[in-house]
Design goal:
The chain is built from 25 helices and eight strands. It is mainly alpha-helical. Among the domains are: about 190 residues, no CATH class; about 50 residues, no CATH class. The strands form four sheets. The chain has a two-stranded parallel ribbon with strand order 1-2. A two-stranded antiparallel ribbon has the order 3-4. A two-stranded antiparallel ribbon has the order 5-6. The termini are far apart. The relative contact order is 0.04.
């Protein structure tokens, strides 16, 4: 109540003191017990909005907006307080249109506080979110982004323009189509990114990297737009330029390793939403490039970056593994499935001809070994995507997959696909048939002694049944059946047999497995 009385004071200095005191006491607050009354909060909002509108109080605009920013954290009365008039004032006060006759520092401070207030309202309050989405705010932000290179605008103002645009397109799905098609959002963001990347061709500073991350997140949201307005044609050139930007981002350096990884992560997320028609743009024809970055006449710098990113995240803790690996694995699966050159390169890098056949596929520090270990990962989504990726690299050939990973590691994928008994005889491959397995001398020498289940060489062992009588063999067989039956009854295992669809189906009793063998 004291604060409200201070705002009502006719003495300008006392009002300024009240504003400063409130900010000092509540800068980190999210609730305000002393203002726990609708009428009080509503009157405070009205008085402060009037001050922000008034040119006579321009010197204290930043302070007034800072108080509104703090109050916007409290959701309790926002539904009844926020109205089109407040939204209009905040949108206008956030507009970057510096007046040379007024202190620029104070102007930018006011703009920044207004942006933060809008951000809080969009984040916290559905009604505000919808009202800002229907206001001129989004169009004005896109226009400003196109002109920022022509004016000396503060870092915070640029960043919060991007953050507001991201938040609105993330939380209000209805505005995505309008921003993408009517306001040409992707074109604006592509041009913005091009200017940032031109400024730092080989290395981005932290500020530019931060802006790039926000811009990539916004484009990702816009690509999710599901409703395309009639008679609106989106320029194909936007997508071509976008792929060039992604290729640049995947290979550009940053002054911070963490920021470079974050940039790559957002670029990879964006690749998950891009039509496969544009995949080829990621591997342009080589032109006087380092031979290590060329493959079959194509520049594979960006693919090398994707592989390095994947490898860096393979050893993440289980809690982080799903978030870290699912996007990159999804991208590599799509690209390997659709672009022959990329699949051939990845296979040469991840599944080279086998030489070490004495160790199991999951043993070792090579990329194949690390991926094979994840084929039995406890996180189902990661386990499936890793197996799918390796299967695609093997051109969906069951025999080849088992050769490189072992039947035990591949069993989950094969069961899911109905391929436990191998590929159906009438199956047709969607992949080219221009390459054959190149068996190494090391593999050929011991091929007959490689255990297909473990995927590794096992020296010949004596046959344990060789010196048994028929009665002893039958006794051991019955004992084994009884042991399996006990495990089944206790719910420890669930025996199954392969059905006509190639998938395992549970059996009710272990003797059903014997019936199968008799039938065959």
């Amino acid at each position: 109540m004291d604060f409200l009385n201070g705002l009502k004071n006719t003495d300008g200095e006392q009002v300024d003191d009240a504003l400063k005191q409130f900010i000092t006491l509540n800068e980190q607050s999210f609730t305000f017990p002393s203002l726990n009354d609708f009428d009080i909060q509503s009157e405070i909002w009205t008085l402060l909005i009037d001050r922000v509108r008034s040119v006579d109080h321009s010197v204290s605009h930043a302070q007034s907006l800072k108080v509104l920013k703090i109050l916007s954290r409290d959701k309790q009365y926002l539904d009844s307080i926020i109205n089109p008039h407040i939204v209009e004032v905040l949108v206008t006060s956030s507009d970057v249109n510096p007046d040379s006759d007024v202190n620029l520092r104070l102007q930018y401070e006011a703009i920044s506080e207004s942006q933060k207030c809008i951000f809080n309202l969009v984040f916290n309050h559905l009604k505000s979110r919808n009202m800002f989405a229907d206001s001129p705010l989004l169009g004005r932000i896109l226009t400003r982004l196109s002109a920022y290179h022509l004016m000396d605008t503060s870092y915070n103002v640029k960043l919060f323009d991007l953050k507001i645009l991201f938040l609105l397109t993330a939380l209000n799905s209805g505005c995505r189509s309008s921003v993408r098609y009517n306001l040409k959002g992707i074109q604006h963001m592509v041009e913005f990114l091009n200017r940032l990347l031109e400024r730092g061709v080989n290395e981005l500073d932290n500020d530019a990297a931060e802006f790039c991350c926000e811009a990539l997140k916004i484009i990702f949201n816009l690509l999710l737009a599901t409703e395309k307005p009639e008679l609106v044609v989106e320029e194909e050139e936007n997508h071509d330029n976008l792929m060039k930007i992604i290729r640049h981002i995947l290979t550009v350096q940053s002054s911070s390793l963490d920021k470079r990884e974050e940039l790559k992560s957002h670029a990879i997320n964006l690749l998950t939403s891009i039509n496969s028609d544009y995949f080829k743009d990621l591997i342009p024809i080589c032109d006087d490039l380092d031979p290590e970055k060329c493959f079959n006449g194509h520049d594979i710098s960006s693919i090398l970056s994707l592989v390095a990113f994947m490898e860096n995240h393979l050893d993440k803790p289980p809690a982080l593994l799903k978030e870290a690996l699912m996007p990159i694995l999804s991208v590599l699966i799509e690209y390997s499935s659709n672009v022959r050159i990329i699949r051939k390169f990845l296979r040469s890098r991840i599944l080279p001809p086998l030489r070490d056949v004495t160790h199991r596929p999951e043993e070792g520090d090579e990329l194949r070994n690390k991926l094979c270990r994840l084929m039995t990962c406890t996180i189902t989504q990661v386990e499936f995507l890793v197996a799918e990726f390796l299967f695609v690299l093997c051109k969906e050939n069951v025999r080849r997959l088992i050769k490189y990973t072992g039947y035990g590691n591949a069993a989950g994928l094969l069961a899911h696909r109905g391929l436990m008994m191998g590929s159906p005889p009438d199956s047709t491959s969607a992949y080219s048939s221009d390459s054959q397995d190149s068996e190494t001398e090391e593999y050929k020498k011991v091929e007959s002694n490689i255990n297909p289940v473990t995927g590794s060489y096992e020296p010949p062992r004596p046959n344990p049944l060789e010196h048994m009588t028929e009665e002893q063999k039958e006794y051991e067989a019955v004992k084994l059946v009884n042991m399996i039956d006990k495990l089944q009854k206790r719910g420890i295992i669930q025996p199954a047999r392969i059905g006509e669809d190639g998938k395992p189906h549970a059996v009710e009793h272990i003797l059903q497995l014997q019936e199968d063998s008799v039938e065959k």
